Amino acid sequence: MTAVATAYETIIGLEVHTQLTTRSKMFCACSADYSGAGPNTHVCPVCLGLPGVLPVINERAIESIVMTGLALNCQIAPFSKFDRKNYPYPDLMKGYQISQYDLPVCHDGWLEITVGGEHKRVGITRVHMEEDTARLLHRVDASTGEGYTLVDVNRSGTPLMEIVSEPDMRTPAEAREYLVRLRQILRYIGVSRANMEEGNFRCDANVSLRPVDAPEYGAKVEIKNMNSFRAVHDALAFEVERQARLLNAGERIVQETRGWVDESQETVSQRTKEEASDYRYFPEPDLPPMRFNEAYLERIRERIPELPEARYRRFLELGLSDYEASTLTESRDRADYYEAVMHALNVDRQRAAKLAANWTLGSVAEWANATGNDVASIPVSAERLAELIQLAEDGTITGTVAKQVFDTMLESGRGARDIVEADGLAQVSGGDELTEIVRKVISENEKAVGDYRAGKESAVKFLVGQVMKATRGRANPQVVQELLVEELG
Amino acid sequence: MSLSKEQVHHIARLARIAVSDDDVEQFAGQLSSLLDHFSTLSAVDTEGVEPTAHPLPLGNVMRADEPAPSLPLEEVLANAPEHEDGYLRVRAVLE
Lengths: 489, 95
Ligand SMILES: [Zn+2]
Known about the structure:
The complex is a heterodimer. Chain A is of the alpha+beta class.
C-alpha cells in the first residue's frame, strides 16, 4: 500500500422531514392521530382527493412551522404560498402534493452543533410546509404470484415539515450531532414527537467528496432509507469510504440516489429512471397565500420556551459540570424536573443545584431508564423528591437510607417523611443505641477484631460494614468508624 | 409555437396516458395551437406589475386545529375498484 491517497473533504447536507403534532390534518379536519387505527379510518373527501373539495390550512401547523423557523434562527417570509408538486406515484390521492416551492415559510437560519469540543454553525437553507403521503404496502398475490400494492390513506394529508440544511457538515459525526440537536429543539418547542424509529422524523442525506482545497463540489449522491441516528452515521461513513475508493481508482462518482441497507451495512444504487424529475410546480389555486406580520411573529416568539443551548449555559453558571448541564438539558422534561427539585430545596443555591443534579441524574434517571418512561411521568413529584433530599441533607436520614426511601416512594406513592417515621429509618446518631450495636458487633467478630489489633487497619472497614448492616444503613459510617476505633482502644 | 413529437410523448408520459404515433401527430397540432392562444397574454405590458400567486385578494384563510369525524370505512371504499382488509388495492407500484 504505497499509493498516495488524495485527501478529500466530505460535504454533507441533510434533509429532514418531520411530522407536526397537530390534532387534525394539514388541510382537512380528519384526526391526525391515526397510530393504532385501522387502515383508511382517518379519511375524508379532502384527503381522499375527491373532486370538488376545498383544502383549508391548519392554523396550528403554520404556528408550529413559524415557531420552528424562529427557533432555528431563520428569516420568516412576510409572504408565503403553497404550490402543487405534480407526480404520478400514487401515495397521494390527488396526483399531486401540496408543498411549497419558491416561497417557503422560513429560510436562511442556522443551528449550532458541538463535536469534539468544537462549536460550529450549520446553515438552514429553508423550512417549508407540506402534506405527508399515504402508506403503501407491497404484497404478492398467492394465487397468481403477481405483486400488488395496498394503500392506507390515514397518514396522507398530515402536516409535514421539511428542513433543509446547507452542505455545511464535514463528517458523519457532525451530521449525527446536527440531527440530535435538531430533534432536541423540535421536542423542546413541542411541535413534533421527532422520533426516527416511529417514522415521524425522517432523514435523507446528500454526500459528495472533493479534493481538499478544490473550489467546486463533487458529484453528490443522495442517501435514503436511514431509519435511526446510527444508520445515518454508518451510511454516511460507508458512503465517504466508497466514494474515496472510487476517486482514488480514477473513477467518476455517478450522481444518483442510493438506499442504505441495514442488514448488509452498505448503500446500494436505487435505479430510478434517468429522466430528471418534472414536478411542474405551480401555485396552489385552492389556497390563498399567507402573510406574516411582526405582531404575529411576536406572539409566536413569546411562546418559545428557553431553548436547550441557553438552558445549558445557564446550568453551567449554576456550577454544574459540562456533563451534568448537557445531560440535564437533553430533554425539556428532565431539565424542568431538575429545576423544580432545585427550587423546592431549602439550602443555599449552589448546594441545591448540585443536590438536584445528583438525584435527577442518579436515582431519577435510573428509574426512567429501567421503566422506559419520560421523567415527566415519574410518580415522585419534584417537591416530594426535594423533601426527601432535605431529610438527608439535614441529617435526619443517611444517604443510603435516602435511596431506599426513594424506592419506597416510587412503589407506594407515600411521602418521604411518612416513610421515615413509619418505618423507623431515622439516623442512629451517636448515643447509647449506636454504642450498644458497636459493642455487639465487636463481640461477634473476634477474627476481624484480632486482625485490627494485630495492626491490620483495613479490618475496621469490615466492622463498619457489619454495623451498617445491623442498623439497616441508618448510621453515619464516619461516626461508626470513630466509635469503633474508640471502643477497640 | 410548435411542440415536437418528443415533447408530446413526454407530456403523455407525465400524465400516464398511452398515445399512439397517430395521436401524437394530432395532439402536437392541437396543443401547439393552445399554446399559441395563451401566448397572446405575453403581449400585455406587465412592467411594474407585482406577480400574483392567487386570483383573489385573500390571505391567511385558515381553520382552527379541531378534528372532526372522518368518513365511515364503507364510504371510503365505496368507489374503489378493488380493496382488501380495509386497504385500497392497486396494481403493483414500484418504488
Ligand atoms: Zn381528511
